[in-house]
Amino acid sequence: MNQQIISGNAVIGQSGGPTAVINQSLVGVIEQLRTHPQIGKILGCLHGVRGIIDDQFIELQDIPQQRLERIAQTPSASLGSTRDKPNAEYCQKIFDHFAKHDVRYFFYIGGNDSSDTCRIVNELGQKSGYELRCFHVPKTIDNDLMHNDHTPGYPSAANFVAQAFMSDDLDNRALPGIKINVVMGRHAGFLTAASVLARHNDESDGPHLIYVPEVAFNVDKFKLDVERIYAKLGRCLIAVSEGIHREGHHKPIAAELAETARGSVETDAHNNIALSGTGALGDYLCQAIRDHMGADTRVRADTFGYMQRCFIGSISPVDAQEARMAGRKAADAALSGNLDGSIAIQRVSDSPYNVEYQLIELSTVAGKTRTLDRKYIVDDNNITDGFKQYLAPLVGNLPVVESLRGGIV
Predict the structure, then answer these.
(1) How far is residue 75's CA from residue 312's CA, in Å, rounded to a whole number?
(2) Among all residues, which ones are annotated catalytic?
(3) Which pLDDT score is estimated for 409?
(4) Which CATH number fits domain 8-141+314-364: 3.40.50.720, 2.60.120.560, 3.40.50.450, 3.50.50.60?
(5) Which residue stretches of 101-179 are H helix?
(6) How far apart are the C-alpha atoms of 172 and 94, rounded to whole Å?
(7) What is the pTM of this model?
């Protein structure tokens, strides 16, 4: 719905887990807002909505372009982030501060929880009669926003995962054994599936097994899968999503383990279970392998944790460009008379790779989770070449490696 463009100040916030390119979106919004005379001050709220109710703002409209470029190229959230989920009382405080600062435009950069926050603020603003334009700018390394081909932050995190597995595979070749890497992904396996890009030779390169939360995890089958690969190659490299769960269970195994150890599990304001702060899942899987293959089996596990999100050496050029454009498109939508919405990235062609940006309703993305299509999952323990084709143009060029022994492991 389009209405008359109103004059006033704008607030930009960043929310949820930071990424390698979230500041590109921030700068994209700033750049585009500065071209419109209807916008007075451009205010950055520190630590998302928390900064609004604490009245912690910094002015962004006069930052020199050279500095903005450096901010854009810097990973993590320059304004700080939050996990706060506003309720009605919280939102009333937001409106009070918006009125105090004559804020009429609100841009929130984040994932599905952040888009839900944007929706709540928008709906309560309408009910209260406060004229406000609310726009969600997509961001999440999980790649789990509905109606998006992919989301800013994911390609760079996927690049990190691919290179990490390439490196670990080289290590595993030199000193053969069994290695497990636990990758972020509570409900969606996109990031874990990105490990498939580490393979150049499907007969020998790892990861040899990939487990995502879209299919139930069977620990007995897992042990047999590992034994089979190890018997064939003398080693085995494994990618596991932190959110894998047993058949008939919705709770991740990692959460079950934490609950058993501590009697409860840590959750945030959005009721998301904290899965990345422990190595319990990796330890559990290592012990399962030792119990099956012998106590002297050489098996190790690493949990990648937060390092996947903001690694400065794995920024995808496509990711940086699209994150910047998503911010610009949100500002354009707001200053074209639109009342609210979320920016979605849609792929229009593979060869050449090309995307378009659409404005969709907040309710279609808010609080919903997109998962990895089952067509990309093979035998509950592998990922197809089709997913490689989907992901390759997003991630960009990966290092080239060579071996003296060819296919011999």
Answers:
(1) 6
(2) 142
(3) 40
(4) 3.40.50.450
(5) 112-128, 154-174
(6) 52
(7) 0.93
